Structure formats: C-alpha cells, structure tokens
Amino acid sequence: MALTGLITDVKPFAVHDGPGIRTTLFFKRCPLRCLWCHNPETQSVKPQLFYYAEKCIGCGLCAKLCSCHKLDETGHSFDRAGCRACGACAQECPSEALMHSGCRITVEEAFELVASDREFYRISKGGVTLSGGEPLLQTDFCAALLEKLHAEKIHTALDTCGAVPWEAFERVLPATDLVLYDIKAITPELHRACTGMGNEKILENLRRLNVADVPVEVRVPLFPGVNDSDGEIEKAGVFFDTLCHGPTSVRLLRGHALARSKYAALGLPDTIPAVPENSDSLTRAAAILTRHRVKLVD
Question: Which ranges constitute the DSSP H helices of 242-293?
C-alpha cells in the first residue's frame, strides 16, 4: 500500500515560509491548541468542511447533493452535526462558500505537485516547506517526501512546533535544509495557558537542534497583553542567548487575526486574542533580545 499523508492545502508562491519563492504543504493534526492558531483546520485529524455564509450565492447545488444543506426562502442552512465532510458539495460549489479540508495524498503525488515549480525555486533560491499543523506527526510521509526533494536538489524547510519525540527530528534532519521552529512562550505556565501544553519537550528539542548540522530559525509570534510582557521577553532572551551562538537565529512576528473568519466557517469558537493596531511589542522585544546578544533576523 502506498504511503500517504493527510494534508489541508498546498500553497504555491509562498514568500513567508522560508527563503525565496516556495510551495508550502499544510499537514493535518497538531498537538497544540494555540489561542491564535492561524490554521485551525489543521488541528483535527478528521476531514472538515468550511462554510463561508457570506460567499453563498443561493444556487442550491449543495442541497441537491446532500441533505445536510437546505435552501428555502430564508436562505441556505447547513447541518454541520450531520455532515461527514466527504467534500462532494465543496467540489460543486461555484462560489467557494463550501471548501473541503483534509485529503490523502501519496508521496509521489505530493512530489509532482511541488516539483512542478522547481524553476521558480531555482531563480529565487526558494524551495518547499512542510508546515501545518505539525508535519512531524506524519513522520514517515515527511521523511520520504523530504528525501525525494533533497535527491532532486530542491531546498527543503520544516515548520514545526517542536512538540514531538526527538526521534521524529532524527528521521527528517538528514534531508532538511532549514528548520523553522515556533516558540509561543518560555514560561511553562504561560505556554500551557496559550497552547494547552507545557513546553519542556519543545525547549529540549530546540537545544538539541542548536547543535545539529542544520540552520534553525526560531519564530516568536507576539500578541499584546498575552505573551509580550517585558518579563517574558527577558526570560526568552536568557534562553536564546544560550542558543544563538550556534546555527540558531530568532525572528519576531507581529500577531494578527487574519484567520478569524476560519473559526466561524468551521463552526469553532474564536479564540484569537484582540490585536491592537498600534502595538510596540516587536520594538520592545527586539531591544530586550538585542541586549542578550540574540541574533535577530528581519
């Protein structure tokens, strides 16, 4: 039986998931439940259906296919509880009001999808990024795909939350050119409050990566009033100072709420914190980390 992975999306021409122009594969399933998760559709291992009510044009095609959809004089209604997320309605929806999340793909199919843009990778010094969710929860698939890409000299990047056994990293590192490593908080209690899980394994894996033969870019999303206090950044500076004289660097990311509409479309409670327009989180954090000799990247 062919090895398959469960993905939610393939994003070509990505420019924020590593150097150059890239194609990013988003994998389903994640051990964390971050308050600000930008890809909530990746948390569950099950297929899901997005319903964007504002995009519905009332054509009724979905209602003809599935009894979970009804169209009457009041408009379209959707019985999410009865939905099996088979995706048949999404395939027929002309306005993309319905979108399916979660499909099986073989290593060969994934390779053909991403390798088709290899000329863009060559010109821009880009490549392919595996993201999620947490791709390393599908270790065998990721290892096989990364090895195939590496053999074709396509630059590979892994975007991970780090909350996986170290053995998963050992499987994929030989074919990984860059690790993008997400750190949500340094204080264990704050990390648990923000993600539902402690960070002991995450920090230990980052320490191990720091002495591995692979570049690591730590990414720190900052949400005002949540994880951006001076005390928390000071603790981060002390921790990063022990790492950043190896291959590790740190990128600060401004928290945003662009994914807020996804929660409503999935029928999930919106947990993304409010994001003030005028926040000095990044400026303050950069100043503190610089005092700790942390290598910051723009």
Answer: 260-266, 281-291
Range of the domain at 54: 48-100
Element (H, E) at 108: helix 107-115
Q: How many CB atoms lie within 10 A of CB 290?
A: 12
Mean pLDDT by 10 residues, the chain (298 residues): 94 95 98 97 95 95 95 92 95 96 97 96 97 97 98 98 98 98 98 98 97 94 97 97 88 95 96 92 96 92
Cα(181)–Cα(210) distance, rounded to whole angstroms? 11
Q: Which residue type does 26 have?
A: F
How large is the C-alpha radius of gyration of the chain?
Answer: 20
How does DSSP classify residue 136?
A: G
The Cα 172–Cα 273 span in angstroms is 34
Q: Shortest CA distance to 263 belongs to which of 11, 29, 32, 43?
A: 43
pTM of the model: 0.94
CA distance 111 to 2: 14
- From residue 296, give the alpha-carbon distance in Å to each of 222, 249, 250, 290: 14, 6, 5, 8
Pairing mode, if any, of strands 4-14 and 103-106?
antiparallel
Q: Is residue 296 part of a domain?
A: no
Instruction: Say whether both 108 and 93 belong to one domain.
Output: no
Look-up: residue for tokens 């997005």? Answer: 50
* CATH number, residue 246: 3.20.20.70
The β-bridge relationship of strands 4-14 and 69-72 is: unpaired
